[in-house]
Protein: ribonuclease P
Amino acid sequence: MATPRPQSSNFALRVRHFQQNSPQPTPFQLTAYLCSTSSTDPDSKDLALQYGFRVSDHMAALNIHPNEASVTAISRLAAAKGDGDYAFEVVKTLVDYQVPPRLRTYEPALFCFCQKLEADKAYQVEEEINNMGLSLEEPQIAALLKLSADTGREERVYNYLHKLRRSVRWISEETGKILEDWFLCKKSEIGSEGAKYDVGSVKESILRNGGGWHGLGWIGEGKWVVRKGNVEPNGRCCCCGEQLDCVDIDDVETEKFALSVAGLAMEREVKANFRAFQDWLGKNANYDAIVDGANIGLYQQNFAEGGFSVLQLDAVVKEMYTRNGNKWPLVILHNKRVRALLENLSSRKLVEEWKANGVLYTTPHGSNDDWYWLYAAVKLRCLLVTNDEMRDHIFELLGSSFFIKWKERHQVRYTFLKGTLKLQMPPTYSIVIQESEKGSWHVPIVCNRDEETLRTWLCITRPGACEEGGKTCEIDDGPCCKSPISEAGENGNHEKSNDKGTSMTESGFERLKLHKLEQTFMKIEVYIRQMTAGRMESQGMLPSQTDANPQENVSVITLRSGTVIVPPIQENDVTCSQKKKS
Ligand SMILES: [Zn+2]
Structure:
């Protein structure tokens, strides 16, 4: 992982940082990197941009293929100049060289357009990112959300809020501020299509989506109330009293997940056996909980007399029966274990009792019962009692992020303390952005403290959308509910503050510093030319690919950005071709 970029203007520090992260950088990469980092420093920005573009033009003139890092650096330079179009153009050239761009490659153009409120261009960059199969992360989604809010596109804001919900579990303080600003602005008061949906269809959507969101649009009209507060351990919002959902994966994802489990099981198990199980499950789908029999029977049995504890398993079966309103769970157990249990008189009675109650499914000889219990739990959207963390290689094959989400919602863990069973049920609510059937939003903010009840949530309600005429939304702040944000008077200044007076740049000291920086850039540039010349000569490439400087000692360079630069001439300068641009 890359270490954070040094903020200091210390030149040597930057070089070292770059070298640590790029073991074998080309001189071009190095300079482009230096220029792009220097361009964030107001003192050296102009100089850095000037030299950065020159490096870019040298590269083009010498016909050197850019890589992702150098294009990203050049794109950052363009963005620092406020030229989003060029920042985007240069990224597109990567396709010509069949170099796959990364998300960071698009960031300069995207952020530049967002900052300048050039909404359509920013959406175009987003489209390109999607086309490349890359996924937006919080900073990009937040920037697009802010842009959409600032340009009053409430439907876009709604969609980005959902995108955020899908991408991150909780948001940063900065993103929270963007949301607050949106919900407190006049434009957010207008209702959209969502207002037309009736309560029934909203509820149905939430159910189909696995809970926690409906995605139908803003509900209701009028002012929003934004508060900051906590959520009680039972999932109740301290600010508005609403109950948060424990969010499951949606119907479509669940079905896909079940199919992929079945597909993998079919590859590894005797096909006929697994198909027989699927058929059986189809006819006996009335279970609310699946029990991983072996995991429970073998729990803490690694002592001398230990074996398979049928009593532990029976305790779990009976506990689940009681908890699920006198409904038996399904225990999956391998036939070699069942056979052993039947041979023993003391356990035989229990096994027969399970069989009589339809509790037991015996997996056949040669099977891996993991596939059976996992498939049953996914397919029937059941609880799954097991302490297996499912990190085995077979689960890695499923490797999707929603597997984690699925486990959180479905897995029941257990302990036996001095022989007494204790079940650890799934959490009562999920720490994710949630949209309720009333149209309110609950947004978790990043929290560095261990205790979940200390986490701050944004509680965003719309009294005008509530059936009870806003009764629930206008309750006084509870003990743990902080004041509405609108009165907080926070200063959302995202710009990097520059507290240096203008006199600094006018001082002799500052001029000296800039002069030294310029000299360093010039030295690097010469070094690059020498390096490149040497490298190309050794490859027998140079003479035919560079033009002699027609003016012998003056090279006027017109940048693609339109800037014309007359560079200072060095004695030992290696000829650089003039950029030919009509
Ligand atoms: Zn609330």
The pocket of zinc ion is lined by residues 237, 239-240, 242, 442, 459 (CB under 6 Å). The longest strand covers residues 411-417.
